[in-house]
Structures are given as structure tokens and as C-alpha cells.
Amino acid sequence: MATFPSITPTYGQQKRSAPNTRTVRFADGYEHRILFGLAAHQNPKVFNFTFNVSETDADTIEGFLDSRANDSASFTFTPPGEGFTKTGTYSQSGTTVTITISSHGLAVGDELTIDYTSGSATDGTFLVASVTDSNVFTVTAAASATNSGNVSITLSGAGQYVCESWSKSIPYNNRATIQTTFREVFEP
Q1: Dihedral angle over CA of 47, 185, 69, 46, nearest 10
Q2: How far is the C-alpha of 166 from the C-alpha of 163, rounded, in Å?
Q3: Any idea what the Cα angle at residue 113 is, between residues 110 and 115, rounded to 5°?
Q4: Who's near 97: CB < 8 A, 6+ residues apart?
Q5: Alpha helix stretches (DSSP H) within the chain
Q6: What is the Cβ-side half-sphere exposure of residue 173, based on CA atoms within 13 angstroms?
Q7: CA angle, corner 123, sides to 146 and 128, nearest 5?
Q8: How far is residue 73's CA from residue 67's CA, in Å, rounded to a whole number?
């Protein structure tokens, strides 16, 4: 799987959410809305980026996007500001690990890298199993144990994207501007 080059977009990006919902409207004004699809795939993001870069970097970006157009493949990209690392505490009882972090901002199904900085729990990559409230969530450990201590979690923010259109302008010598739209896709 290809990874987008390590070139950062210019400040001023735009992010749109497009939840996949189906709506049934009845004559009396009642409306029923349901999310459509798998839970982790129900709210894809669309980003508009501007890259104000050297002509060399612009050629790198354009060559990468041309290659994806030729093979119709998605690519891995981490939008600026989408990932984070936070610290807190945990307690494990059996295979359920309860993690407390103020305003964690996570949802069921988010994939985390967890580093247990104290106690004897095993570090690794975990999916959020449940969210109790804005400060508490759980993950499931591979082995049953009783532990507690401090924890550091990282949500990478990386995802799979496609870029269906882009434009390039050269405003002056050795500088270029590339406008792109990246649409999040969900693939195995």
C-alpha cells in the first residue's frame, strides 16, 4: 500500500464529514434516520488541501497522484491534526482494561497503540471496545490479569484516501500550488 509523500499541506485546510444515513419520512412529519454500513465506516471524511511548495515537491506530489490514478489504488495519509497522544490511568480485571483519560475523544472501534507505562499489562495495538463517558473507555486484553497503573495512548489518525482530482499552478519561478481533494475510503 502506497503512503503519501512526507509533504505537509499549507495552513487552511478544510474538512467535511459526510455521515452515511438513510432517512424515511412519513406523511405526518415523522422522520426515521439510521446509519448505513459498518459502524467504523459510517462517517467518512473529505479534506481539501492546498500545497504551496517548491516545483520539485509539486512534481513529487503530482507524480504520486498520477500513479494512483493509473492503478486506481488508495493511499495511506495522516491529515494534519488528526492523531494524538494522551496519558491517563488504567485498571485491568480479567481481559477488560478500563482506561481513564480526561476528554479522550474516542469512539467504539478506534484503533489505538497503548503503552502501559507502569504495572505489568502488555503493550500493543487495541480497538476501543466500549465508551462509558467522555473520560472512560475500555479495551480487551489478550490475556486475563489484574493490573493497574499509568498508560499512554496514541491514535495515529492515518487512514486510506483517494484523490480523484487535483490542480497545479505555478505562480512564479520555482514555486507551485497544488489543490487537492482527499476522500476517505474503507478497505481491508
Answers
A1: -10
A2: 7
A3: 135
A4: 90, 91, 121, 126, 138, 139, 140, 141, 147
A5: 55-71
A6: 0
A7: 80
A8: 9
Backbone angles phi, psi at 174, to 5 degrees: 65, 20
Longest dimension (CA), the chain: 63
Please tell me the distance from the alpha carbon of residue 176 to that of residue 188, in angstroms, as a whole number: 35
**Pairwise CA distance, residues 80 & 70, whole Å:** 26
pTM recorded for the entire structure = 0.68
How is residue 78 written as a grid cell?
495522516
* Set of cell numbers at residue 138: 475500555
Instruction: Give the span between the Cα atoms of 21 and 130, in whole angstroms.
Output: 22
Rounded to 5 degrees, φ, ψ at 28 are -85, 5
- C-alpha cell belonging to residue 170: 505555478
Contact (Cβ atoms closer than 8 angstroms) between residue 146 and residue 120 = no
> Residue 50 in contact with residue 178, Cβ under 8 Å?
yes
- The mean predicted confidence, pLDDT, of the chain is 89
Task: Encode pLDDT of 135-181 as tens digits.
Answer: 999 999 999 999 999 999 998 888 899 998 999 999 889 999 999 99
Q: Are 32 and 9 in contact (CB under 8 A)?
A: no
Using a 10 angstrom Cβ sphere, with 0-12 exposed, 13-18 middle and 19 or more buried, the burial of residue 129 is: middle
Helix (H, G, I), strand (E, B) or coil at 71: helix
